[in-house]
Design a protein that fits this description.
Layout (H helix, E strand, L loop, with lengths): L12 H7 L16 H13 L2 H15 L9 H16 L1
C-alpha cells in the first residue's frame, strides 16, 4: 500500500446499521386469522343478522381496521370486515 491510500470496507457502518435497523414504534401484525370453517360460520351468521345488527358489526370491524400511526390492522379484523361489507352490500 502506498502512503495516503486508505482501504474502504465493502460497506460503511451506517449502511450496516440501516440494514439491520428495526422500527420499535411499528406494531407487528398478529398471527391470529380465521380458519375456513370460522369464515363460513361468520358468513352464515352475517346472512341471518338484521340490517341494524349487520351495520353495527360492519362499523365495529371497520373501526378495528383503521390505521393509527404506523400500526398495521390485524389480519383477523380484515377477514371480518370483508364478509361484513359483502353482506351489507347485498342487503
Amino acid at each position: 500500500m502506498g502512503v495516503g491510500v486508505s482501504v474502504q470496507p465493502p460497506f460503511s457502518f451506517g449502511e450496516q446499521r440501516a440494514k439491520y435497523a428495526t422500527l420499535p414504534f411499528v406494531e407487528k401484525p398478529d398471527k391470529i386469522v380465521l380458519s375456513k370453517e370460522e369464515l363460513v360460520h361468520l358468513q352464515q351468521k352475517l346472512q341471518m343478522m338484521s340490517v341494524t345488527g349487520l351495520s353495527d358489526f360492519y362499523r365495529a370491524a371497520y373501526h378495528r381496521c383503521r390505521r393509527e400511526g404506523y400500526s398495521v390492522p390485524p389480519a383477523r379484523a380484515l377477514l371480518e370486515l370483508i364478509p361484513a361489507w359483502k353482506a351489507k352490500r347485498k342487503s
